[in-house]
Structures are given as structure tokens and as C-alpha cells.
Amino acid sequence: MEERSRGLKEERRLFRRIEANFPVKMLDLVSGKEIEARALDLSAQGLGAMIKEKIEVPSLVRLWLHFPDRKRALSMGGKVVWVKFSSPEVYRLGIEFSQPNFLGLSRVFRT
Q: Are 38 and 50 in contact (CB under 8 A)?
């Protein structure tokens, strides 16, 4: 309890998060706009990424994750749950997967 009173956030993740660095294509399902992104971290529940243009919260998106194994991109749906301005023309965002594909995601967790 004392830690919470000091302003530390409680970790709410059910699955571990790993650092990542691979390209992601995003499609905003409302506007139809395609967005190039770069994965920064990944868990079974979601993805942290970097983009060059702002996207609204809560945007529904289709993702194509291009893992380093160079196999076919993994396609998943998701929702943008937060966006933060990082530096000029760079935004960090968090995406929650709508239906996690545990088998597909295992390609990156095995390495």
C-alpha cells in the first residue's frame, strides 16, 4: 500500500512484455487510412509502437505484424488505447489486441 501512496502505478498485465523492433502496417478501420508503424514492445495482449502521425483514441485498427522471422505477416485486430506525443512528428501508442492470436504471437516469443 505504501508504494501506491508514492504514486507508483500497479502493473495490470497478465502476460509478460518483451522489447520489439519490427515493422507494423496499420489500417484505421474508420478512416481507411494506412499507417506505417514500428513495434517497440509486445505482449500477448497488445503492442507498443511508434508512428509519425497522430491517431485518435479509441481507433479500431487492423494490424499486420512483420516479425523478424520473415514469414508471412500476422494479421490481428486491435484498439488504440493511448497515444502520447514523443517528439516532433513521433507518437507512441498502445494497442490492445481484440482477439489475441497466441499461436501466431508465439513466433516472436520463441526467440
A: yes
Domains of the chain, earliest start first:
12-104 (2.40.10.220)
24: left (phi over 0), alpha (psi -120 to 50) or beta: beta
**CA neighbor of 77 nearest in space, from 57, 92, 52, 59:** 59
- Note down pLDDT in tens along the chain; length 111 residues: 444 444 444 455 556 789 999 999 999 999 999 999 999 999 989 999 999 999 999 999 999 999 988 889 999 999 999 999 999 889 999 999 999 888 888 887 665
Q: What is the pTM of this model?
A: 0.82
33-40: Cβ within 8 A, 24+ apart = 37/93, 39/65, 40/92
